Amino acid sequence: EDLGSFHFDTRAGPSPKIFKKMYKGVSFYYIPVYGLMDKEPEEEDDMYHVRTWSALYELGVTHAISGATSGGIDPELDFDDIVLIDDFMEFRAERPNDVLKASGHSRPGVFPNFEVPLSPSIRKLLIEECAKRKEATGYKGKIRNTGTFFQFAPGRFESPGEVRAMRKLGADLTSMNQATCIVYARQFGIRYGSICSISNPAVGVRPFTFEQMQESVQNIAGFAIPVVLEVIARIPEEAMRPEPSSTGDEFEGNYLDPDGKTTDV
Predict the structure, then answer these.
(1) Which helix (H) or strand (E) holds 235?
(2) Mean local confidence (pLDDT), 214-243
(3) pLDDT category, 244, cuts 50, 70, 90?
């Protein structure tokens, strides 16, 4: 159900266009393509993600779900496969590493650890709903419940040599934005889950064409969108218990003064 759309000024600048929607009585916000659609043509790449996550934080969002069509580094991955990633690596970070500082926010006294990079509660729901939909539809892609995501330089495909290096480091798939989302969500204390997919082999693994990739993207969307909606419908009843691994452990003091009060610096 479509409930309209809006913009507003965040502390980091103008928000992207935000759509408010409802599914099975649960309201949620939808932002297409990470907020990229509202990026000014002359603007650098590094800030539209900051504004998007700042908007979600300022709106009081507690849970977020996204994903990426990706290149399969593992040769066993093929077109239309679904990977519910549980770990990530990011090399050549070209966006702000500290979204709180970049957006003008702070969360003093909160430790955003990445030992568990994605929300366990959202991952559980994604795994269950993917299994249900595959059984109900006979979807041809395989479902992997774990995977390591590798984010390299945004804005281009990798070289065969880069992909070989990623594989040696333990990566299963690669794309341009999920590591950014994982980091920013954790720093803002928003639980985050990701449903990734394979729209092509990574460069150098096997040849592929643009037409194959576009066909796979449509197949993936037909599978993934209903999965995400069903997860959203379940969140209020099944994913609201405290989850410090996703929202950050609270603490007082600092290294030099363990009993002192943490201040915003």
Answers:
(1) helix 210-238
(2) 96
(3) very high
Q: What is the CA radius of gyration of the chain?
A: 19
Q: Name the E strands within 73-223.
A: 82-83, 87-90, 110-111, 143-144, 148-151, 173-175, 191-194, 196-201
Is there a contact between 27 and 3 (Cβ–Cβ < 8 Å)?
yes
Question: Are the beta carbons of 77 and 69 closer than 8 angstroms?
Answer: no
Burial class (CB in 10 A: 0-12, 13-18, 19+), 256: exposed
Specify whether the CB–CB gap between 253 and 259 falls below 8 A. Answer: yes
250 falls in which pLDDT band (50, 70, 90)?
confident
Nearest to 244 by CA among 111, 84, 109, 100: 111
Q: Is 109 exposed, middle or buried (0-12, 13-18, 19+ CB in 10 A)?
A: middle
| Other CB atoms within 10 A of residue 8 CB | 10
**Quick one: tokens of 28?**
């949620």
CA trace torsion 184, 189, 193, 198 (10° rounding)? 10
> Does the predicted model carry a pTM greater than 0.85?
yes
Give the C-alpha separation, 33 to 87, whole Å. 21
Burial (Cβ within 10 Å: 0-12, 13-18, ≥19) of residue 212: middle
- Name the E strands within 63-142: 63-66, 69-72, 82-83, 87-90, 110-111
Question: What tokens does 26 get?
Answer: 């649960």
pLDDT in tens, 85-114: 999 999 877 789 999 999 999 998 888 999
Which two structure tokens, joined as six digits, stand for 127? 């795994």
The first and second tokens of residue 234, run together, are 């379940």
